[in-house]
Amino acid sequence: MPIVKNLSRAVSQLLQSSGCGCGISIVPVRCIGVSPRQVASDASFHSVSFSESDHPRVLITGGLGQLGVGLAKLLRKRFGKNNVILSDIRKPADNVFYSGPFIYADILDYKNLREIVVNNRITWLFHYSALLSAVGEANVPLARAVNITGLHNVLDIAAEHNLRLFVPSTIGAFGPTSPRDPTPDLCIQRPRTIYGVSKVHAELMGEYYHYRYGLDFRCLRYPGIISADSQPGGGTTDYAVQIFHDAIKTGKFQCNLKPDTRLPMMYIDDCLKATLEVMEAPAEALSMRTYNISAMSFTPEELAQEVQKHVPELQVTYNVDEVRQAIADSWPMNFDDRNARRDWGWKHDYDLPELVTTMFSFLGSDSRIAQAN
């Protein structure tokens, strides 16, 4: 203990006066979120590069949402089970917990998140924690905290530790004054939901950190994502998932959007493929840091007609939710994704007929197993 005390005293004296007689200046710390930290004004960060024998160490925040579990599965096949850590603030199902590393991570706890990155030697971070459109409108303060303050924590940690950072954006990043058919990568963005506002903020902050500090920030604007692996989670485009569950379970579906509401959509496998491809793309191939990606665009009526080819007895009614309809009416009808296709070779695999067939092949088999049991 005397040694520790003497060492502590020596360090204290050293901090009070340097050997050259110059006082050590204390730099004010900029606070964002819940913990103090700073990015030096002259900092310059660079993403970690990997040789062919190396793999990135990956952290996925908000991992129990619609995309996190599927992305973890894809990345574990690519980089190895133990190199991909799934995280969330919720308790995972057994199959998720035992499929690979899972930890508790609260993006609003800067210190905890920083420790996770350091202790696990993280090099790639996929930031999926967010409150979606309809849910965010019901709780704006929480959406502001999660979608904006949480993002600030992630950006600062990614910059400090030289991470390659992916943050998804959305069709919700556009508003009623944006061109809707098609919507290009660069145009007016004036969303009218806290979800959309927070995503525009994420796009601009990520690009700022890239140009200011050299952060390797990458972002894709997702269309509505359709998946058989997850239940609808409060998004405006969730009707396109719900219709399959209702067709199998009850044969009746009530849509909360107008039958002619056209929105861009994508099957989850295409979404995950695009995410991995843009993360693996050489930095010099990227002409921008935020890209539109698209696969198909359809209306509830067109989707119902395709579903009825598999379930002819499906009865479809419309009970329009004014909040969700207003959101959908402000979003793009079609995405222009030519820059993604040109810069890093993006190409989708699923159109509407393939999407519907694939969804029923998954959900239909699960339903038959359940009925047999």
Describe the structure.
Catalyzes the NAD(+)-dependent oxidation of L-threonine to 2-amino-3-ketobutyrate, mediating L-threonine catabolism. It comes from Mycteria americana. InterPro entries: Epimerase_deHydtase, NAD(P)-bd_dom_sf, NAD(P)_epim/dehydratase. This is L-threonine 3-dehydrogenase, mitochondrial. Pathway: Amino-acid degradation; L-threonine degradation via oxydo-reductase pathway; glycine from L-threonine: step 1/2. It is built from 13 helices and 15 strands. By secondary structure, the protein is an alpha/beta fold. α2 crosses α9, α6 packs parallel to α7 and α8 packs parallel to α10. The longest helix is centred in the middle third of the chain and has 21 residues. It is globular. The termini are far apart.
Topology:
Blueprint (H helix, E strand, L loop, with lengths): L1 H15 L14 E2 L2 E2 L21 E4 L6 H12 L4 E5 L5 H4 L4 E3 L5 H10 L4 E4 L5 H6 L1 H21 L3 E3 L2 E2 L23 H20 L2 E7 L1 E3 L12 H11 L2 E4 L7 E5 H13 L9 E3 L3 E3 L1 H9 L6 E4 L3 H8 L8 H6 L8 H21 L1
Parallel strand pairs: 3-4, 3-6, 4-5, 6-7, 7-9, 8-9, 9-13, 10-12, 11-15
Antiparallel strand pairs: 1-2, 12-14
Helix pairs in contact: 2-9, 4-6, 6-7, 8-10, 8-13
Class from secondary-structure proportions? alpha/beta
* Tally of individual helices: 13
> Main β-sheet: number of strands, strand sense, barrel status?
8 strands, parallel
Morphology: globular
- Structural Rg: 23 Å
Q: Give the termini separation.
A: 66 Å
Strand content: 5-15%
Could you give the count of β-strands?
15
Could you report the average pLDDT, rounded to the nearest whole number?
A: 86
Q: Kindly state the percentage of residues in helix.
A: 40-55%
Quaternary status of these chains?
A: single chain
Low-pLDDT regions:
1-36, 38-53, 367-373
The arrangement of helices and strands along the chain is HEEEHEHEHEHHEEHEEHEEHEEHEHHH
Enzyme class: oxidoreductase
Protein name: L-threonine 3-dehydrogenase, mitochondrial
Function: Catalyzes the NAD(+)-dependent oxidation of L-threonine to 2-amino-3-ketobutyrate, mediating L-threonine catabolism.
EC number: 1.1.1.103
